[in-house]
Amino acid sequence: MTLNPTHLPVPTELVTPRFALRRQQLTDNAVDYDAVMDSQGDLRIWSDSTWPEDTFTLKENAQDLAMHIGEHDRDEAYGFSIFSADQGQFLGSLYVNQVAPFIDNYRTDSQTAERLKQVDARVEYWLRRGVDRAFEMEFLRAVQAWMVEAWWFQRVAFGSRRGMHEQRGRYEAAGMTELAQLIAKEGERRFHFHT
Asked: Which pLDDT tens digit goes with each residue over 114-142?
């Protein structure tokens, strides 16, 4: 499946006075890995899994980046690196993903499935440990505007997993409401969609 069936130009960056977001590159590996390992606890909540494990390596991080870059090349998903405005500090990652294949792993009733069919893409991001939450609100609002102004999607949902209560609060502060909450077919994993 593709996020870009009509082969429209894919935005490559979002630059503001506070941050620069650009397409992921393998040359980001070292700074990406440093942020991942510095933010392990937060990322385990973000991924609702044991990733990144204590034994996670720089090479494995490069493999993950290569996977995301390949998805980007194939228009299956889009991955972006987030930097400070001067590009001196790596701040996190943002992903634009498909909705349909993802929800196959969750229980859905017919009404929820119908609501989610109206969503063209899901956006998820993580910011490294210690990033100021006021900055996150500014980042979130800029990304919301970017999705409307630069992308072709009619409706985008922002996602979060079960332990991300604070992020859901920021979604609500940015004017979003919860569209759906899914529970995994296996286990207690949850995923929330906000629009």
From this structure: 999 999 999 999 999 999 989 999 999 99
**Pairwise CA distance, residues 23 & 77, whole Å:** 11
pLDDT at 192 over 90: yes
The pLDDT of residue 10 is above 90: yes
Cβ-count burial 166-187 (b if 16+ within 10 Å, e if not): ebbebbeeeebeebbebeeeee
pLDDT of residue 101: 82
Q: Domains along the chain? A: 13-194 (3.40.630.30)
